[in-house]
Structures
1.
Amino acid sequence: MAEYALILVSTVLVNNFVLVKFLGLCPFMGVSRKLETAMGMGLATTFVLTLSAASSYLVDTYILQPLGLGYLQTIAFILVIAVVVQFTETVMHKTSPVLYQMLGIFLPLITTNCAVLGVALLNTQEQHNFVESALYGFGAAVGFSLVLVLFAAVRERVAVADVPEPFQGNAIALITAGLMSMAFMGFAGLVAG
Amino acid sequence: MGAVLTAVLTLSLLAVLFGLLLGYAAVRFRVEGDPIVDQIDALLPQTQCGQCGFAGCRPYAEAIASGEAEINRCPPGGETAMIALADLLGRDPVPLENEEAAAKPKSVAWIIEEECIGCTLCLQACPVDAILGAAKQMHTVIADECTGCELCLPPCPVECIVMKPIRETPETWRWPYPRAAHWLKEAADA
């Protein structure tokens, strides 16, 4: 039980995928302009990341490894992620129109989120078992959502601030992200590993 | 050679399997609905202000889709929405019905309280219940609720309602809407 909690704390805070591992930066910069869209993106990513981490583990353990095809990981995982995202979108459109309205436009974006592929590859690298894999994906997504929402809240305030002309727009956003990244380094002392 | 064949076969099999799954899902979870109304509705600003003469954005979208209404009756959407609609439906862009309304800054209604006679006529006109007051009592506008639709202006018998532009604060500020692409504007001018 303790090691599961450790995985969660480690992925959410200490080894945060966006601010410490620098994965998934495109949606981090692209969807963080408004708080509501950031929340939507965070929810959609949490859903897809957990599911794709688990299914990538299954494909790797029961198909690729027994056949000695470990080198096909990258392409196989991309395939799995694309299918999971598409399947989720189709099912959601039918079963929950409200949720689809909220997350619909973000789902296809997640296919190209490098954090999703990163989680799947890191899972095999660190030889996690099934539960650990899913938890690792879930933790990574919660960490992603956390910084996305925090960053969106900061950006909404920065946007009305009197920023010097050379720093306006994405420049000040990147500086803000850098400052947040430094703040997250403070968590490194929280747990070892 | 055997290893390559295994790899190719495995990947192809995986792809076919996933393809079948998606194909099944697309049939099993098909959604019925009129896609063109959804597309039009997505281009409208969703302020539900009723300035087009319909009860909201969705009814206006349905009216456009069935050909009952022109595409130029949405002042909040302005020229951008009109050109986007013209592009979507393959119709010719038309000038906005109310040109001044499109250019106005965002504002909310404000009741000059010294002049208000408490007739409650504006209360009944307000679509979002943003006006507070009772008969023969002074009325006031809840600025947070007001959508700036101007529907309360015509019924007022003493003309004590004015539109005041909103000052931008961190709470009310929003990213500007993207402008229509350059070539769209040129197409509209031509």
Note: The mean pLDDT of chain A is 86.
2.
Amino acid sequence: MFEVLIDQFWSLTIAGIALGFIYVLISLGYTMVYGVLRMINFANSEIFMWGTFGTVITNRDIFHYTQTSEPAKGWKLALVLISALLMSMFVAALTAVFVEFVAYRRLRMKGTNRLATLISAIGISIALAELMRLLTDSRPVGSPRVLEKMILTEVWGANIRLDTVVTIIAAAIIYILLERFIQLSRMGKAIRAVSQNEDSAKLMGVNLNRVITVTFLVGGLATGAAGFFYITVFEYTKFNIGFTMGLAAFTAAVLGGIGNIRGAFLGGLSLGLLEVYASAVLGTQWKAVTVFIVLVLVLLFKPNGLFGEAVQQTRA
Amino acid sequence: MKLRNYWNLRDAGAQLWEGSNRKGRVTIALSAIVLVALLPFAGASFLATPIAAYDAVLVYPVGVFVLMALGLNIVVGKSGMLDLGYVAFFAIGAYTMALMGTLTSLNTWQIMPFGIAFAMVAGVLLGLPTLRLRGDYLAIVTLGFGEIVRLIALNSSWTKGPNGIANIPMPPDIGPLEFKLDDQKVFFWVVVVMILLTIWMIRRLSIRRPGRAWEAIRQDEDVAELLGVHTLKYKIWSFSLGAAVGGAAGVLYASKNLFIAPEMFTLNVSILILACVVFGGIGNIWGVVVGATILGYLPDRIRFISDARLLVFGIVLVVVMNFRPDGLLPRKKREKIGERAQARL
């Protein structure tokens, strides 16, 4: 039962970390919106899905790569990768702001019950997924391979592939930038103020509307970056991939303690590793079940998530 | 202001009801039931659905959605707990019917109590450890539970995995009423009877101790507990009663569909049922019935725009929620206390 896990421990670990970083970035989208609105952003999975298409469009339609063309090299490679990343982030951020504007703003102004907002978010999420389904004829869309999946080196019997390395390093950089933005910038401070106490923040002169829009924007940027990495590793996308990834990322956010950024980081990484190990021990089909059982257990013993209280004070 | 009154169908209905005496009420109720029972005969009118058979649409999704939405309303509307895994109970009912129907010689009506019981047991088992959680955490745990049930059905050999279970027996005839696939009137009438029973149960419970306890829990759980309401007990009651209705709907669905597979029990169903509850007017039985009817019926009615119908469905959800955030037929003002308070938490 455990042979696979022991045999391939290190390669599994590396795959788990790469997957974990994708989760980290998507959970940022959930956790930040939850922080300011106290609301699950149900549409975040579709924001992610739209983000993956940003990369596909860049690779396929802007730089005209095809399934048969040679992977890029040198400066060209860096240019394509960075523009694809930026495009994904742009598309996702735009979608996120759109979602906030259409599904959240009016209801928030009215101060109505949470469930109405939830259903409104679910509605926009269905609409976004369906729009993409119509645009792509329900077909999966493959992305041409831009980054060659060559093996860089071997550590403890594990192959270190280029795409995994790029994913881990770049995702870590993006995470650190966002985290610094939240911690140091004036806007970040405002976001944290709103998530601690909305009323007091308003009294201190924080422009609530702008903070919420920026939160969606930043969450969208992170989620979009995750879309880019997803394409880099898995090389295909479909109108319904948002669901599974979104669910997992949301679980990660809760696991880490939803509403705080470091919780998303730790939760995402733990979930990535947990999923990979669980599929090695029990088989891929049971990985989601394991994840949910772990989540339930964690919530029973630490209702604020694994790292909830350590980082952020419990709210009143 | 005038326009607002015009839109307030709930008060208009309540006035009609309050204004009539016992005889008048019986007449109203009976004529409403007769009108609903005659619905399958209206297939040739503007109600007709373009592609799916009209009488089949009335049973599933419309009838089953109304039933499930009423069950979920006990949990979400009455006691204010957000349950995103309601499909699990539906699935448990359906799989009970499928397994017992194919492996034993029991018929649908004999299996029904088992389906309800298993769903209730699952509700209690899920409720005992998790109902201490609140709000969004409860939502995510129930969501996880729903997925676990589906994944177990998908990956176990005794449920035949992704192939699903076929050849589930139809219900036996009730006297002269025959269950047929090409003419599902009788199925529809059975669903209507189940819906009426559920409505009767909810109305009875609402005005008695459990209903008051749920109301107190929904408005403020801490205060309810301080005032001596055994909150955990009543939350579990609410959970397992909701589960029972879901289980019953599942048994009927499996017996009508003759075939079930795990892909029928995805998170989308839970979300759709929740949408029915909120769309119609959370906590208000009639609102829920109206909401579930519309959301069940709409996608089939607008099949002429075939491919874009779910897109339209999503947009309708957004628009209606934005302009009527309390749903089409909201509950009474008095009962809305607590929702505002929750919104601020």
Note: The two ends of chain A are 46 Å apart (CA to CA).
